[in-house]
Design brief:
about 220 residues, alpha/beta, two-stranded parallel ribbon, 3 helices
Amino acid sequence: MSSQIIFLEDYCEIYFGELGENRSCSITDNIVTTEDYQISLALSTLIINWTSPVFHCWNIYKISNETDDELVRITVNGIRSEVDMRISPGVHYLDLLGIPEIYDYHIYLPSLLITEEYVHYANGPQILTFKYVYDSPPNSMVINNYIRKTMNDTKQIQIHNQNFFESPILRMEENVFHGKNRMTAVTFTEFSVKGLTAKTFENLTSLSRLIFDNVILRDLSFLR
């Protein structure tokens, strides 16, 4: 195993070839910098920091020919809005970067931290976790949309509120888990959960654990 991944020397040539010479791209001290983002390495973590507040296009490309064993984590920072197109599951970033799999993937939003574990570019994550940084009205929408975009091989989904002094409303949409027939467990922690119906967990043939930890449920009809 090499001590450090070296970014492709022609990364910026590829960047300019795709987007035009009037764009900005440089590599200094193994850090890629463009007008939209910066990509750097810290130990075995690849850090993507979106510096542009506005999404223009998917302009990240394969970074190296040596990524199979060296990387264990990808983190995505700099997203400032919960409706940003760059809020995307790990498989999309893996595909852009030319990385087949990663141990874990973190995407930091203003009000949420989303973590995927054991991520394969073709199958997605085995475990998907959402952690509230603080309560924000778009959180439920982000969670529902992200779950739907996640590959159907996911085995566990966990949604945690880390503020034990309040139980924010988490509104789950109908059929949000549709197609996730390999999912074995769903966990909710410290919420007032609304929107659960019989269709929420319909046809989830592998589901064996449904965990509600200090959760407010005013309608239990989904259990019938």
